[in-house]
Amino acid sequence: MNDNHAFKAVIFDIDGTLTPDVSWTALTRDLGGSVEKHLELYRGHRDGTIAYEISKGELLKLWQATGNANKDFFEKLFMSWPFREGAEELVDYLKSKGYLICLITGAVDLYAEVVAKRLGVAYFIPNARFVWDESGKLIDFDYDVKQGEKKLEQFLEFCREQNLNPSDCAVVGDGYNDVKLFSLTGNGIMVRSEGAHHLENIAWKKVEDLKEIMNFL
Ligand SMILES: [Mg+2]
């Protein structure tokens, strides 16, 4: 028995947890833009040396300059990206056990929507929002650099809407933006990846392989 836990919901991070890549930079890479330039802009904004509007505007220009920054192209990319091994099987298993499943991600809305659709998950809460013009060209986006704080707010809102206590939820994640959810619930399941050291000391369980989660949920 799950260490006497009776979970009602399982909350998943996407990037690094259900998929092997970070979607923001994978997007730039597959559009044909410079990932190095992208990271420069991201770090500048995170560290406060480049203002949000400028960093965002430059990234938008970087994407637009590839000629591929349109909804169709993005959707095709998001459909083609791989999951981590066992992701689909695990989600099917959790659904069959009756768990409510929600994706809470630092990624953009269209990506979260496509991943949720591919996995057959009803609830997804993204960090960022794309803005398209009538012809489907990307003309703007909103993004919150404080991903950890935002995920916590979104998680608490999900719990309120679904009448859940945070302790009713198991949280599956792989990095710094999952720290607050792991601490709050005490039910964090760490999936090993590059950023997992942030979670090493606060995880309830640690797995190498997603399918291991079926042993205790
Ligand atoms: Mg992650």
List keywords for this structure.
8 strands, Rossmann fold, 6-stranded parallel sheet, binds magnesium ion, 41% helix, alpha/beta, 8 helices, two-stranded antiparallel ribbon, 217 residues
Task: Walk me through what this model shows.
With 217 residues, this protein is α/β, with parallel strands linked by helices. It has a domain at 9-20 and 83-215: Rossmann fold (3-Layer(aba) Sandwich). 41% of the residues lie in helices and 15% in strands. The protein has eight helices and eight strands; from the N terminus they run βαααααβαβββαβαββ. The protein has helices at 23-31, 35-46, 52-64, 71-80, 87-96, 109-119, 147-162, 179-185, and strands spanning 9-12, 100-104, 123-125, 129-132, 138-142, 169-173, 188-191, 205-207. The strands form two sheets. Strands 3-2-1-6-7-8 form a six-stranded parallel sheet, with helices on both faces. It has a two-stranded antiparallel ribbon with strand order 4-5. A hairpin with a 5-residue loop joins strand 4 (129-132) and strand 5. Helix 4 (71-80) crosses helix 6 (109-119). The longest helix is centred in the last third of the chain and has 16 residues, at 147-162. The radius of gyration is 17 Å and the shape is globular. The N and C termini lie close together (9 Å). 35% of the residues are buried. The mean pLDDT is 95. Magnesium ion binds next to loops.
